[in-house]
Known about the structure:
This protein is an alpha/beta fold. The chain is built from 14 helices and 14 strands. Strands 2-1-3-4-5-6 form a six-stranded parallel β-sheet, sandwiched between helices.
Amino acid sequence: MGKDLLKHCWKASPQGLRLLALSALCLVQAEKRSAARPKGGPFYVCGAFYSKSGISQGARLYVQHCRAQGQDVLPVDITDAMRYERDHEPDEVPLTVRDVQNSTKGGTVVIHANPPQFQLALCALGKSFLRHKRVIAYWAWELEAFPPIWQQALPYVDAVEVPSTFTQQTLQQLTDKPVTVLPHAVPQPVRRKTAYATDGIIRCLFIFDAGASFERKNPLAALQAFAQAFKPGEAELTFKVSNAKADSRQYQGFEKACTAVPGVCIITDDLDSAALTELYLRHDIYLSLHRSEGYGLTIREAMLHGLHVVATGWSGNMDFMQGDLAHVVPYTLVPVQLFSGPCKGLTAQWAEADTAAAAAMLRGLGKRLLQEAGHA
């Protein structure tokens, strides 16, 4: 059975049936945690290392961070277990699930996978591998409420690590197990932007994954603010979009809206780390009018590359959005109304950025950068 058919069947099934299926799988292949396992032993970090998704990048950064701290890490690939596409070639070939399944001694296993992929990873690793090991879930979530499938996973972990205080505060309400904030250890780039708008053009950038929900990433709000802020010829806006085919209907509407605004372009090519650095350094302002972020990895990367960031002042990105480069956009909390995806049916709120205020920020910041560059 192909991955696409499996995803379709999963999305089409009722939520109660999904919970029942996951509960049955976990009872057979995993083990609930009645008492925390001791620390020590091998340190296994499980992630979709052959995927280019944000959660997969988080796993790669986690491995780098642990090794920088002197930890002996064994990366284990769970791309297939998570039903992710293999669209990335890792620099280091990780271990496979089969390589480690016969290791029944103690240790620590950190699984970078949100439910329900987390449960699928548990089942792939197997009860005998996990039994004597400490299991930590590294979860990134973007709302102040969790789906029942997440709550179903909590009995199978000893502890949870999350990238932001925003996620921690929400999750800690559901469990008495340790929930620790461990931000993504984004490395300091070798090159950093120091001069802006040198040719008299303000260049804005937004990077997003279409598979992570158009509604949450909210690129149309960024487009609207840009259109209000600048006259044709004054500025450019680049959207770097991953997984453009994940929601073809919404992407087509987004693409059509972009063609109506002068100075806007869309990049859908896969970029390696060097090309991504060049993309950041070609721009002056990073514009994210998201409705919610569990962390905001690209916002953090943009700031580290020296870009000014104009972003919604709510959720995970507020852990690090301080300083002269941070320009916080006001917002109003509104009910989440989603009828598909993991947030379907959740009673929660998220932020609706004030696009008029964002446009004013862009306009004022652009004027300042042009003056500093000698173009005003």
